[in-house]
Amino acid sequence: MMAVHSENINFPVLGTLLPQALSIYLDGAISAIPVNHLSIDSRAISKGDVFVALQGVSVHGEVFIPAAIKKGAVAILSATTASDVFVEYRDEIPVIFIPHLEQYLSEIAGNFYHHPTKKVPVIGITGTNGKTSCAQIYAQLSAFNGSAVGVIGTMGYGACRPHVSHKNSQDKDFQDKGFQDKSSQNSHASQSRAGQPGYSLSLVSTGMTTPDAIAAQFICDELLHSNNASNTLGLESVVMEVSSHGLEQGRVSALDINSAIFTNLTHDHLDYHGDMVAYGNAKAKLFEMPTINLAIVNLDDEFSHELTTKIASTVRVISYSIDNANADLYLDNIRYGHSQLLADLYCNNEIYALSTPLIGRFNLSNLLAVLSVFSQQQNFSQVVASAQYLQPISGRMESVENQEGIQVVVDFAHTPDALDNVLQAVSEYVDGEVYCVFGCGGDRDQSKRPLMAAVAERYADHVVVTNDNPRSENPTDIAQQVVQGFSSNNHCVIEEREEAIRFAIHHAKIGDMVVIAGKGHESYQLIGDQKIPFSDRQVALSALKDKSIGHEVSHD
Q1: What's the CATH architecture for 398-548?
Q2: Rounded to whole angstroms, how far apart are CA atoms 143 and 131?
């Protein structure tokens, strides 16, 4: 739960926060109300705050208005299906009902936080898969080359900077602000050898890929300290993951995003968007933002051709591809070296030797997307060279070290395409058999469940279907929908995720590979209305330890 606090000494008044199209409906008294904070969470309201009541998945925030008023809200902004703005009073507190409020909220929050993204370049990344990897790759490459950047995405938000031996007190400063629950903080630092570049990155979890409209502005404000005369954290850019939900709901509409990256469009979120056409249209909204001046598109994805027709003629378009020579950046002579993928990179009429420890063609595609951002910079050759130092991203093709002679990989893959990419990548270099442990999230797109099974059995010798985050759904029902996609019997169902992971690791032999897919970096499992501590990596480590001392597993 986020409490979005400002450090303004003189609080802005409500009339200055609303766009003129809305503020004209307010009388002088309402317009002059000082605003301490903004929040869409009634539990975070304090005296002097404005509560924003939006339509949720199952309930409208309007039901929490009495609670917000009791906690000291001085005004309420509430979404309405009415055609015009109107005002009512509840316990003498003005409630301003606004049609399509969610589409105005980014601007309202931007006015409150003084539009922090006007200070530095902002790169937005959208696509079904690869957003987190691209954001983290961009952050690492920037740090390797001396630049500090802000990162916002699925794993949280924070500052990535060139590696230093001591903790930066300013990093701690912004981590300690704004969150009532700091239980989900992650720190990453590359273990750089002498003479090699490194990075440090501390992330504070938000629980979302793209934060809500108020939180997005608040986080940018915290990262950039926009209330001060200068950018005191020294960040030179911000990179953020932009989900289709976030675009459709207008969460980033008033952020000054300058560069947009498109990774791919594959089957996901159809429970929300309805069909692939609507899903693609949502992704395209990022490229239609008026602040965009650079668009980066993936020619290996069919949707890129449609996407480019939606991009304004004034926007520079850079294309990338694994092997399409018509792209501005493309690869040739892809090969495997010692712990590295090697390739010849063609860009700007030059050929560069590319080397990266990241595994799989899909990671080469992610790397190309990020290199496209740097391709017009004078130090491009230096950036390309630094790709050899990239570190694995938490929960993305993350290897679990062990002495058992088996390979264990944890990955966030939770779509058919992502699972296909991961299993295809590992099958290219594993000597033995492949075990795949995966499940599908509850209260999410059900149509992808049998498709995931078909992908798993295509590449894996043994498939274990288990729980992911079942949420309010019955785990047995989810598993039954998954198994409908199998055409062979090389699978079993073990609903308890820990038991499923232990089963696969116990049965794996020397030379085998165990892929644990779906949750990646997540440190919890959502079962019913409970958030239970759970880590695929930690369970795998425990199972490997038990395997080394000969412990048996009960499931057969």
Answers
A1: Alpha-Beta Complex (3.90)
A2: 18
